[in-house]
Amino acid sequence: MKTNRHLKILEIIEKKDIETQEELCACLNEEGVKTTQATVSRDIRELKLTKVSTPGGKQKYTQLREEKAIMIDKFHRIFKEGVVRLDTAQNILVIKTVSGMAMAVAAALDEMGWPQIVGSIAGDDTIMCAVKTNEDAQDLLRQLNRVIKEG
Question: Phi and psi for 64 in degrees, rounded to 5?
Fold first, then answer.
């Protein structure tokens, strides 16, 4: 339900210049997505929407895709530059980093949003990631090695 509402919000702000939360709420209700202004407010925060000026001098909600792409590139660079070695121990992903980089690499890893990761703990040069299953850990290991190789 929430995912559908988020998708509908993104669709609406692509088609229309939505200036207020109330206006967005009304559009959602017109589209058959019954919601409240308080829920729309939370959705705006979760989707990281922002307002930009339109040529007519008004403002509208938009999603900053370019900024997100830039940030993902930054997180990949931090990960690539900080990681020394990756390994698994069943469903635990062990990431060895340059000394003092574990916290930064763990934060970048969190921001990359890998759904297989349940949680992470970072020390000075090691990160332990609890992964949902042994198979997920192996798949994640392959994907992260690709991030390191591709840059």
Answer: -85, 85
